[in-house]
């Protein structure tokens, strides 16, 4: 019985502590990049939501005005309601061809966006895909 008590009171050896530290280090090198990608996607989702809103309202603008808008400012007079917090974090550009089948809508982050400035998210009308920040692939910054 005394031998068991003595063994319990000894504590951990240096080797055991080093093994635990190495295991935690390995887990951290795998988990941190994955976590950062999720954070990028979360920041970019704000821009993606607004890009969808811009596209929907650009179609309404075309029906009312006869042509697609060339600038977001044109749509803000009755066609587009954008939250001030989104406008502070992202600058939006619109470039839609007259046929409405090709073109892009893009968002570029400002200094007020927590993920950093000059990050871009772009939607291509022809392919229907988003590219850039938070989308994975080589264009993600």
Which descriptors would you attach to this protein?
4 helices, 4-stranded antiparallel sheet, rod-shaped, 141 residues, alpha+beta, Pantoate--beta-alanine Ligase, Chain: A,domain 2
In total, the number of strands is: 4
The sequence of SSEs as H and E is HHHHEEEE
**Span between N and C termini?**
61 Å
The count of domains is 1
CATH fold category name: Pantoate--beta-alanine Ligase, Chain: A,domain 2
Q: What does the average pLDDT come to?
A: 88
Give the strand line-up of the largest sheet: 1-2-3-4
User: What CATH architecture would you give?
Assistant: 2-Layer Sandwich
Oligomer: single chain
Structural class, judged by helices and strands? alpha+beta
Shape: rod-shaped
* Helicity range: 40-55%
Main sheet: strands, sense, barrel: 4 strands, antiparallel
Number of helices, where a helix is a run of at least 4 consecutive DSSP H or I residues: 4
Describe, in plain words, how this protein is organized in 3D.
By secondary structure, the chain is α+β, with helices and mostly antiparallel strands. It has a single domain (2-132), classed as Pantoate--beta-alanine Ligase, Chain: A,domain 2, CATH 3.30.1300.70. The chain has four helices and four strands. It has a four-stranded antiparallel sheet with strand order 1-2-3-4. A hairpin with a 4-residue loop joins strand 3 and strand 4 (129-132). The longest helix has 52 residues, at 14-65. The protein starts with a helix and ends in a 9-residue tail after the last strand.
Topology:
Elements: H1 2-10, H2 14-65, H3 72-75, H4 84-89, E1 90-96, E2 103-109, E3 120-124, E4 129-132
Antiparallel strand pairs: 1-2, 2-3, 3-4
């Amino acid at each position: 019985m005394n031998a068991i008590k003595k063994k319990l009171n000894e504590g951990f050896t240096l080797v055991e502590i080093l093994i635990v530290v190495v295991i935690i280090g390995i887990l951290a090198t795998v988990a941190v990049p994955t976590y950062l990608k999720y954070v990028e996607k979360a920041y970019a989702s704000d821009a993606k939501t607004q890009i969808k809103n811009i596209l929907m309202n650009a179609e309404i603008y075309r029906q009312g005005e006869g042509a697609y808008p060339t600038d977001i400012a044109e749509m803000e007079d009755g066609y587009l309601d954008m939250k001030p917090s989104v406008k502070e974090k992202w600058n939006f550009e619109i470039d839609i061809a007259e046929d409405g089948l090709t073109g892009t809508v893009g968002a570029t982050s400002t200094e007020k966006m927590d993920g950093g400035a000059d990050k871009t998210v772009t939607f291509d009308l022809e392919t229907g895909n988003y590219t850039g920040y938070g989308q994975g692939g080589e264009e993600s910054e």
